[in-house]
Amino acid sequence: MAEGGFVVAICQHGGEFTSGPNGNLIYKGGEAHAVDVSREMSLDSFKDEVSKVFHVDVTDMSFKYFLPNNNRTLITISCDRDLQRMVDFTASAAQADVFVISRVENRSVVTYTGASTVKAGSNAHGDKRKRTASKNKVSKSNKKTA
C-alpha cells in the first residue's frame, strides 16, 4: 500500500472491453484519471470525486476493478466495504485500475464474457417470460401459398 494507507485508483471511463488472446479482458480507449483512495474513504466520497474528474453523473454507473493477477473477473464496488476491500486487495500494487461503466455497458460486459446473470426463459425475478400475442402474426399453417 502506498505511504499513508491509500492506493491510487486509475479510473477509466468512455472506453470498451475487448477480449485478449488468452481470454483476459482488455480495456481500450476512453479517459483515465488518478484518484487517491484511502481505506477510510466512503463510496459516496469516491463517487463524488470520480464525478468531478470526468464531469459526468455517476448515478447510473457501476464501478469495477480486477484483482491483482486476474484480468478475467471484474469485481463490483457497490458499498463502502467493497471499496475498503479494493484498497486491501491492491495494497501490494499501490494502484488499482477502476472501470467506470454505465449499467447498460455493464450488461454488455457480462454478456461479452460469456457469463449469464439471468436463467434463460426467465426474468431477473425468476418469473417465466410472458409471450405477447401478435394480432398480425401469421403461422406457417395459416399461410396461403400461391
TrEMBL record:
What spans are recorded as compositionally biased (Basic residues)?
Answer: 127-146
Q: Which domain of life is it from?
A: Eukaryota
Annotated spans, Disordered: 120-146
State the Pfam families in the record: PB1
Which residue numbers delimit the PB1 domain? 20-103
Q: Which InterPro entries does UniProt cross-reference here?
A: PB1_dom
The identity of this protein, by name, is: PB1 domain-containing protein
Q: What organism does the record attribute this protein to?
A: Aegilops tauschii subsp. strangulata (Goatgrass)
